[in-house]
Amino acid sequence: MGFGSSPKSPSFTKDRRGWNSAWERDLATVFGSSVEMTFTSNRSVPNLTAGLPKEYYDMMLADANVLNLQTITSQICILQRDLTRKSSKRFAEDDFESDWTTRCSVKEREDFILEGLVRACQASPDFEEHRKWYQVSIRSSCPELTLKRLNHGSGQGFLDLLKKMTLQDLDKIPSEFKTVPNVVYDKLHAIADPKPHPGWVLAKKSCDSTRAYLLTMVVWNILLAFYGESENYGLVKGQRTDPGQLKRLKELGGSDVKSIARETAANRLLGERHCTSCGLPAEKAGVATLAACQRCKAINRLVFYCSKKCQAADWKTGHPPHKTICGKEGAIAEALLSPVPAQVDDDDELFPAPNPGYTRSPALLHQLKLLKENPQVDYVLVQPDPHPDHGVVLQDAMGGMFFKLCMRRAVCDRSPREVLMMFQQLEPTAQGAPGFGVAKLKKQLLKEYGVDVDAVKAER
């Protein structure tokens, strides 16, 4: 199967709606076709990673397999950070939520969704071609990805999924990708054993990474398509699997594993090396070639960097820090299985972390970014390009302190009263700001905090 082609008939290159309908029929046989996802009554519920031969779990711990998993994890984390940056700006400046739900027709949203699905499958043939046990494909690990589910509620299904994929920090690349809970998928991949084989844990993480990668890639490409943008992707050349292990894996897994092995080998030919730290290939990093870590190369582990800066960053703060695994066989599996230490929040005390259960909106994340970049202002009235934003500086010292106290609470938890008081302090500036006005201020606060200040007033 060639890169960019499709195993479904018809292919997305000939009839993308027919191609998608074929996929959705397959999904419906397992998960039903309603918006709410449940297993159909005539199907048993398999566990896709439990009960595999011990030899398979042992192979999952091989250095090459673990490093490939870590590479994919890093790629997902970078993509989710980029998605968070892009969506926060679009929500705040361009009113994406309203454009998507009220200004797009059902047909227009379907076209954007189909474009995102096709682009994702073109970006990596694994997303469509790989087959797992019980004939469950990678796309079948993402039952959310149907036109009905993404388009329901005037497109609210897509917005909900996008918000679940975004992070709470626009700058940091996390050590672990963000997952989207799903009762169907979680049941398929549950680990009930209190002391599971480490290889089982990695097998589940591998499935989780595939699901997270496809969900993020589809959401990312739908957003890009909506704004007439696109991005070229290159396959990451993975570590070469030990031939002896691959032979045993084929013997254990039958035709499905043989098919995966063939496709993985083909993908390696198409792939290119990427910098372990920034994730860029040599061309995009602006260098002729990437440099390999020589100590890791000596144990047949291939780790590459585009610059001394990236190498130093990965050595100190990589996931895991490279100094803990450099040239050490088996160390990367141990690091990947170890609990991730809590990241130290080095932000100032103005914007503490949100309370448990509270998720900052993309528009609010954009506001916090602007305030960090412009510490001399108390708030920013956001306008779409090419119109300039308007920074607000509260002249009364006591009023400024009170405003910051209200905002400190509002960015950490739902706080309608505090948002109303913020509105009252910002209202005079909004009235006089060129091209802005009170109505736009109300709309901005609604996008940022989910609070309708008029409704809060009416309740008082």
**Average pLDDT, all residues:** 85
In total, the number of strands is 4
Given as residue ranges, the uncertain stretches (5+ residues, pLDDT < 50) are: 1-5, 130-136
Can you summarize the main beta sheet?
Answer: 2 strands, antiparallel
SS field, number of helical segments: 19
* Radius of gyration over all CA atoms, rounded: 24 Å
Order of helices and strands: HHHHHHHHHHHEHEHHHEEHHHH
- The share of residues in helices is 55-70%
Distance between the termini: 64 Å
Description:
With 460 residues, the protein is mostly helical. It has 19 helices and four strands. The strands form two sheets. The chain has a two-stranded antiparallel ribbon with strand order 1-2. Strands 3-4 form a two-stranded antiparallel ribbon. A hairpin with an 8-residue loop joins strand 3 and strand 4 (390-392). The longest helix is centred in the N-terminal third of the chain and has 32 residues, at 63-94. It starts with 15 loop residues before the first helix and ends with a helix. The model is unreliable at 1-5 and 130-136 (pLDDT under 50).
